[in-house]
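[job 0412] stage=fold_complex status=start
inputs:
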Amino acid sequence: MVIIGQPNMVTQTIDNPIMVPDMLSFLTYRRWNARVHGLNEFPETDWPQNIPLLYFAYHIMVGLGTMFIAVMAVAGFLLWRRRLYGSRWMLWVLMLMFPFPYVANTAGWMTAEMGRQPWLVYGLMRTEEGFSKMVSAGSAWFTFLGFAGMYTLLSFLFLFLVRREIEHGPEPMPTPEPPKPGRLEPMGVK
Amino acid sequence: MATIWFMIVAVMVAMYVLLDGFDLGAGAVHLLIAKTDTDRRTVLRAIGPVWDGNEVWLLAAGGTLYFAFPLLYASSFSGFYLPLIMVLWLLMLRGIGIEFRHRLHDDLWASACDVIFSLSSVLLAIFFGAALANVVRGVPLNADGYFFEPLWTDFMVGTDNGILDWYTVTIGVLALVTLVVHGSLYLAMKTEGELNTRARRLASALWPAQVLLSGAGLVATIYVRPGVVNNFLKWPIGFLIPLVVVAGLLYLFVAGRRKNDRGAFLASCGYIAGMLVGSAFALYPIVLPATTDPNYSLTIYNTATGAHGMQVGFVWFTFGAILAVIYFVFIYRTFRGKVHVEQGASGHEY
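[job 0412] stage=fold_complex status=done
writing structure:
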């Protein structure tokens, strides 16, 4: 399995691959020596259009997801050991992580929608058979721009409200009390 | 089986109009009868816990249409592409107006949200009326079962119809008046004091307009599509439906006089349900009539999904419907009674 590399569409290989041998076979088929079918075994007419973009979208999604699992495992461990709120470095990591779920979500969505191309229903219906013939390109542009505009406004509103919430800050720590045994302290955030 | 699914879709649309109808009506009169900030927060709190649940009936009706009559779904969602997207935008704006108002404690922001909420509610009411009128009047379907309709042409009912013509606009206005009355009565039922009085007074004042427009709508419908009377003549039991409509209108008047808000609201429900069921009954088995050639009309038979799918779907639909009913009974019981808003600044509630 290639952890990361740069897809080269001319040679149809991955440039500068960082490899873990046999891993993909195991992840896909639960056997270390199973044969995974490559894209080159499918007819080129059934390929998604933009393979490099798809490649990176998928790897960003999976890479970030793996990172989240690792960070959460460490943070969970620290919480369990009651050292989370005292570990400045971990709190820094958690704070800096906050934009990445949005990135991972978007990348995952791109993976799903680009990766399914050229099929609407796999093996049954292609995208070019599914679009509305009665909707003109002008109409599509009009509504696309309308949505883009509305979502841009909403994004600004969202960022503004989130900023306010962050500036508001966490509630002051309650007066220190000896932690009750066998119970996790709730986070002091409203 | 196709007939059962036709009834299910009709009932779901009727549920949507009955439930989200009062949210839209409340939105339409928001600026008119809720004067102070406390009044406006009261209106929002009256519909706050239920409006988004009510809206789901529209999505569910659309989903059911997609499942049971896929060809109708494909044809109408392509043909009505632009107006449907506009409805979507309006629904988004309404949600923003309701849910973002209390995020900032600022008078200008609150006013902006009130205007967005109110304006999108008014337009949605008119659009939904016009949408129903389009389905009754028919659209220029071609032999493949598809059509395109511009938003407007010359506002005449003829061969080159627009989405908006004199007939659909009339029904749009009827829908607006009906939902304004419906929403006012809901607010009257949920509020006290001046707001309650103003809401009831508005509903009573609009009664003559509602009667007049209902009559005009009926005449116009028979003029535009004379075929609507056929089903009533074929199955005379259908005449019970206009009876419900008339009874609803009469009781609306009586209950308004007696200041019986709950009775008046139920009368309005009866009236709306009667109007919608009547439309569905008149159309059956056609689901989208063709203005081009009657043979191109979409019916429940030429648009229905496979027989096996319909049967399996019916079983699952039953489970889903039971869950939805439980949810709605629960939420309306939880938030029954009059709403109160404490004076002055509040926290994160409406």
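[job 0412] summary: Chain B has a mean pLDDT of 90.
[job 0412] exit 0
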